[in-house]
Amino acid sequence: MDISARTDYAIRALLSLAAAHRSGSTSLSAESLAREQDLPRKFLEAILADLRRGGLVVSQRGSAGGYRLALPAEELTLGMVVRTVDGPLAEVRGLRPHQTAYEGVAQHLPVVWVALRASMRHVLDGVTLADLVTGELPDHVRGLAEEPDAWLPR
Amino acid sequence: MDISARTDYAIRALLSLAAAHRSGSTSLSAESLAREQDLPRKFLEAILADLRRGGLVVSQRGSAGGYRLALPAEELTLGMVVRTVDGPLAEVRGLRPHQTAYEGVAQHLPVVWVALRASMRHVLDGVTLADLVTGELPDHVRGLAEEPDAWLPR
DNA sequence: ATATTCCCTATCAATTCGATAGGGAATATC
DNA sequence: GATATTCCCTATCGAATTGATAGGGAATAT
Hints:
2 copies of one chain form a homodimer.
Chain A: E1 2-3, H1 5-22, H2 30-37, H3 41-53, E2 57-60, E3 66-69, H4 78-86, E4 91-92, H5 109-124, H6 129-134, H7 139-145
Antiparallel strand pairs in A: 2-3
Helix pairs in contact in A: 1-2, 1-3, 1-4, 2-3
The structure holds a DNA duplex (30 and 30 nucleotides).
């Protein structure tokens, strides 16, 4: 699993938009988003373009232009962000988990890959931008993070 | 999440070793492992070298040489294989999940990353080579794979 | 001796990743 | 209607990663 800089930056910019929206602001420029979360502006512009094409944000050009969320923050999950900027949550040798197939002794492997993806979905599709802004994460996510060794390397 | 070809090949070769061991064979050559699972021999040799350095297999040179598991198949998990050939299970911009830190509105993100890693650990550290050879996967893994939409793309 | 097999280093092409450059198109404001 | 602002598009870049092969040296069983 590698959460890329692209995904990390996308989420942080969207969180800024979600928070700004609650405070009544209309839209934020790429410039101000980059400043607020300390992100490389040009790179962020490219990511925001992906988010717009993916329908997660809407943009407005011109003087008072900028970006705002295309959906309520309560309906935007981290899974949607990952898929929009980085593609499928999980792949095995470039294949989707459910498309893998093996001969002989490895025949049961696809079950594991599908289970792995399902476990990732439970986390990433269960957390919304609104959850993160308020800090009130779903119980099962909080539970995972509170397990005894969760914060230790292995 | 990307399960690389390296990891996929490593697991399949190790499964062959695990199965061969139950059938009483002593060791298998890189050549025969490559043939059995249809893997590129030279590439597999490089992966087996990593597995040996990582202490997951032991090797023997010479005529009747080859590789065998360094531990019982019941004690070898997929997580151990992934970490040996591809490094940490989960990383965020090259950082371990518990090492991430954010300012402002993104401050709660590390909880999500740690939860995500924990959920992956539950699957990958819970499945052993022996489980896969017999097809008897742990209940919670089987449960994840049996969820209604687990085999559907999203 | 010899055939076998692991082992080590180097190299490769293709792709991805993170990032920047430069300028065109829309738009609000004065 | 000129101007400043801001998004938008294409191209490019270096570095790293990925998947893989080549070639030959070192150990070992027969």
